[in-house]
């Protein structure tokens, strides 16, 4: 009997990537094996993202590729899962053999005609096939209750559901015992986690107490749920990495209100000041959307001013695209594509300057790095503050902590030299 080979194409955030690890686990428990490339696969799975229309447009591109492959091999099966709006699901029926809600992942074997090897019906309890041997993504919750006007997540993943704190702690312990050095805690609104009477700061304390040498990171928090208790917990937990992604989305109060973001620019600044005072040397990244419906040049100037003032280490800048079914889709998308491009460039230029100045503080210092890649004789990895450091070294260092001395700071990284291998 020929081995059935699968290929997973993943779009979107870390949560989707984590879901793909669970998909791979289900398939490999059915004796499927990963194909070397898409053309070699008998089963193709597309794990979709619905955060922007451009993400869905990419899925249409995938359907054309799948159609060509099916002409060569009619026995190929194609499955669509992930974050897909109901309206889009209907359009994709017929283009895929199955459109599967990610929460229904345990039903995949039945569709493929394979008896289930487990009675587990909660997809988050499926043990993942981790893509990395040293950095693991651990979902602690799924869904969202915020209904930001531009976002489809509450319609694709549903309302917030937190995992059992005991299950999370058990998973992290097993990972650390297996040699994992970095644990990412994931959720669409990670700091609203609450399970078994345990809130997010309390969960962090319990994970921090696990024996072992590892870092804790998390994404993505909401400013409205970033409590003083959480700030104090991060500051006092030695395994918490000094890096926080704190989405602002806009630097203008009028636009924030239209986005249904329940905080003001002033409130965000006060929060950021608290974080920086409590956690010395913390690196802050943010998310921002340019060209939201009705965003005037004056509105954008406020975002531009905010970028200059707050001096972010990194920013994930998105150009607004309408998503059917969201509240913002009822608004006129009246900022031209060229203007969105211009605003994107302006913020990127400011970010380049502030990131370069922030990185300059690292020159001459020795810092700890978790090595994650090797290319052309050079190694690269992340510092505790999520800066990318590059230095000469051997591939055997991947997955290890090392100490490097920073030779030169660049806007998007740090030129370094290896000092010491820690483990």
What this model shows, in words?
- This protein is α/β, with parallel strands linked by helices and 423 residues long.
- The protein has 3 domains: 107 residues, Rossmann fold, CATH 3.40.50; 234 residues, pyruvate-formate lyase- activating enzyme, CATH 3.80.30.20; 56 residues, Nucleic acid-binding proteins (OB fold (Dihydrolipoamide Acetyltransferase, E2P), Beta Barrel).
- 33% of the residues lie in helices and 24% in strands.
- It has 12 helices and 20 strands.
- Helix 7 runs parallel beside helix 8 and helix 11 packs parallel to helix 12.
- The longest helix is centred in the C-terminal third of the chain and has 24 residues.
- It is globular, with a radius of gyration of 22 Å.
- The model has no long low-confidence stretch (mean pLDDT 94).
Main sheet summary? 5 strands, parallel
Structural class: alpha/beta
Oligomer: single chain
Write down the domain tally. 3
Number of strands: 20
Query: Which bin fits the share of residues in helices?
Result: 25-40%
Average predicted confidence as pLDDT: 94
CATH architecture level-2 label of the largest domain:
Alpha-Beta Horseshoe
The end-to-end distance, rounded to whole angstroms, is 43 Å
Strand content: 15-25%
| Number of H/I helices | 12
According to CATH, the homologous superfamily of the largest domain is: tm_1862 like domain
Question: CATH topology of the largest domain, anyone?
Answer: pyruvate-formate lyase- activating enzyme
Q: What characteristic shape results from the CA principal axes?
A: globular
CATH class wording of the largest domain: Alpha Beta
Low-confidence stretches: none
Which strand order do you get reading across the main beta sheet?
Answer: 2-1-3-4-5
């Amino acid at each position: 009997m020929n081995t059935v080979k699968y290929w997973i194409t993943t779009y979107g955030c870390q949560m989707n990537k984590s879901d793909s690890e669970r998909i791979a686990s289900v398939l490999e428990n059915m004796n499927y094996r990963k194909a070397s490339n898409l053309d070699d696969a008998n089963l193709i799975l597309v794990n979709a993202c619905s955060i922007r229309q451009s993400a869905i447009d990419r899925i249409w591109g995938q359907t054309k590729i799948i159609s060509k492959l099916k002409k060569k091999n009619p026995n190929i099966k194609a499955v669509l899962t992930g974050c897909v709006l109901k309206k889009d699901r209907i359009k994709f029926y017929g283009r895929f053999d199955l459109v599967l809600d990610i929460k229904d992942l345990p039903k995949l074997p039945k569709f493929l005609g394979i008896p289930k090897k487990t009675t587990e019906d909660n997809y988050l309890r499926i043990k993942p096939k981790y893509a990395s041997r040293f950095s693991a993504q651990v979902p602690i919750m799924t869904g969202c209750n915020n209904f930001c006007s531009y976002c489809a997540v509450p319609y694709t993943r549903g309302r917030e559901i937190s995992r059992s704190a005991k299950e999370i702690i058990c998973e992290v312990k097993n990972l650390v015992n297996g040699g994992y050095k970095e644990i990412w805690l994931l959720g669409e609104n990670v700091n609203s986690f609450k399970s078994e009477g345990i809130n997010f700061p309390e969960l962090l304390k319990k994970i921090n107490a696990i024996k072992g040498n590892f870092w804790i990171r998390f994404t993505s928090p909401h400013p409205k749920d970033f409590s003083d208790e959480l700030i104090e917990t991060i500051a006092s937990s030695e395994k918490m990495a000094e890096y926080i992604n704190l989405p602002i989305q806009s630097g203008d109060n009028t636009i924030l209100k239209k986005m249904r973001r329940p905080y003001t620019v002033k409130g965000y600044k006060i929060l950021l000041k608290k974080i920086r005072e409590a956690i010395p040397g913390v690196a802050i990244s943010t998310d921002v959307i340019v060209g939201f419906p009705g965003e005037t040049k004056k509105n954008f100037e406020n975002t531009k001013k905010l970028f200059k003032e707050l001096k972010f280490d990194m920013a994930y800048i998105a150009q607004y695209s309408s998503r059917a079914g969201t509240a913002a889709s009822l608004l006129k998308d009246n900022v031209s594509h060229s203007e969105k491009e211009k605003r994107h460039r302006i913020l990127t230029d400011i970010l380049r300057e502030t990131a370069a100045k922030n990185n300059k503080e690292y020159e001459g210092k020795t810092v700890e790095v978790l090595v994650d890649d090797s290319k052309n004789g050079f190694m690269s990895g992340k510092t505790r503050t999520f800066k990318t450091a590059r230095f000469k070294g051997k591939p055997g260092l991947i997955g290890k902590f090392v100490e490097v001395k920073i030779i030169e700071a660049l806007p998007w990284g740090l030129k370094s030299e290896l000092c010491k291998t820690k483990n």
